[in-house]
Amino acid sequence: MKLKNKLILLYAVAALAAVLCVGAAVLAGIERLSIRAIERQLLDQSSLAEIYIVQMHLLRDDREGLLSAETARDAIGKLSLVLGHVRLYDTRLELLAAASTDLAKNITEDERLRLLSAAQKGDYAYLARNNIVHFASPVMQDDRILCIVEIIYPASFFRSLISDVVMVFAIGAVLLIVIMTGLSIVIAGKVTRPIRDLAEAAERYANREFRPVVIKGSDELVRLGESFNAMGAQLQEYIQRQKQFVSNVSHELRTPLTAIIGYSEILWDEMKERSDLRKAISHLNCEAKRLAGLVDEVLTLSRMDSGKETLAFSRVDLSGLVAETAESMRLRAEKYGIVLKTFIETGLTIWGDREKLIQVMVNLLDNAFKYSPAHSSVSVRLEREDGHARITVADEGIGIPEADREKVFERFYRADNVRHVPGTGLGLSIVKYIIDAHQGTIRLDRSSGGGTAVEIKLPLI
Ligand SMILES: Nc1ncnc2c1ncn2[C@@H]1O[C@H](COP(=O)(O)OP(=O)(O)OP(=O)(O)O)[C@@H](O)[C@H]1O
Ligand SMILES: [Mg+2]
Description:
Layout: H1 3-60, H2 69-83, E1 85-89, E2 95-98, H3 109-120, E3 125-129, E4 132-141, E5 144-154, H4 156-206, H5 220-270, H6 275-306, E6 314-317, H7 318-328, H8 330-335, E7 339-344, E8 349-352, H9 354-370, E9 377-385, E10 388-394, H10 427-437, E11 441-446, E12 452-459
Parallel strand pairs: 7-9
Antiparallel strand pairs: 1-2, 1-5, 3-4, 4-5, 6-8, 9-10, 10-12, 11-12
Bound molecules: adenosine-5'-triphosphate and magnesium ion (MG).
């Protein structure tokens, strides 16, 4: 997951957790508060009922200690006007009078009995069920229980208050998460942009493109960006100096090498009767030519790097070019004991640099000969395919290990299986440069003969 998305998710989860915690705390608080408020209200109401009942009893009842059913009924008549659903029981828990209501059936008779028994012990008791509170308390007269009053109190108001609060919190939570997500998108974008810029700059540096990265602000990331740019500048300078050095040395080597090749040839001509010296001079000449070849390759690459290697494009008869180059290499193939076969479709023309394309063919054939055993065959094929010319050079040699097929285009890279064959590892990198400059493609594969097949595609005109 991207760093930006991770941050956004983190902010949203944090906002949700905060809302849930605050919501749960507020709800618990409201619940506790409502229970206390109901309790206090019912205690007040029961005290009121007690005062009223005791007064009525003192005024009306002649039988000492007992509340008559008539007094109870009258008391209920008045109390129900103020307190709503009230019921009165005598000390044996028999119902004396009740305001007519269905709410009484909210609890079973057994539950009511337990509730009233608790009140009979002298203290108040209550039972809440289906948002209705049944509150029972003894009515005392001169330290003796006169009767028991049950107040049935619908607490739906508090329930609806709680569900209102839940609703407000739910809406608040949704809004908060939307706002937080919006904000976090902006914040995460700001935080991750410099990191993304730095990552992109690192990728560019890896491709040797040292464009500096610009990071605005005044934090650690800005310092990191500055250090990054300083590092890039140093690296660029170092690479530049290294290239310049290679180019200078190659140039300096060229003149003495040409002299060595020239003089060794003169000496070889002059030493007709000294066959031992001739052998040594011939060896000297060969090595000097090999070294001169290497110097030329290094110089070509150095010119490519500095953009000084320009290609001279013109109309090229590719069929003729491939056939002629293959023919010119036939002698060399025979030297290696290799049979060179050609299958060339005629009339294929491209827009390209003739000399460079010859260089490509020479390099590919040279590799095919070098890395193949004697008596094997190498085939050169040229055919038309979907507006392209396809050149295939296939051999039956040692092949390129699959893991190395991309790496061999890098400079100086040579696969492990060719250590016994001389070479510098520059040929294919030059070939790739030339093919790229022709808007073509090059691909390495395993040939049907178990060796290497190089496939090049170039756009036809
Ligand atoms: N036909 C082939 N068969 C087997 N391996 C090959 C073949 N062509 C290229 N390679 C591998 O690719 C590597 C790079 O090839 P490249 O032509 O760039 O360098 P080289 O042949 O080693 O040296 P030089 O610069 O003299 O051509 C070779 O060293 C070899 O490992
Ligand atoms: Mg080569």
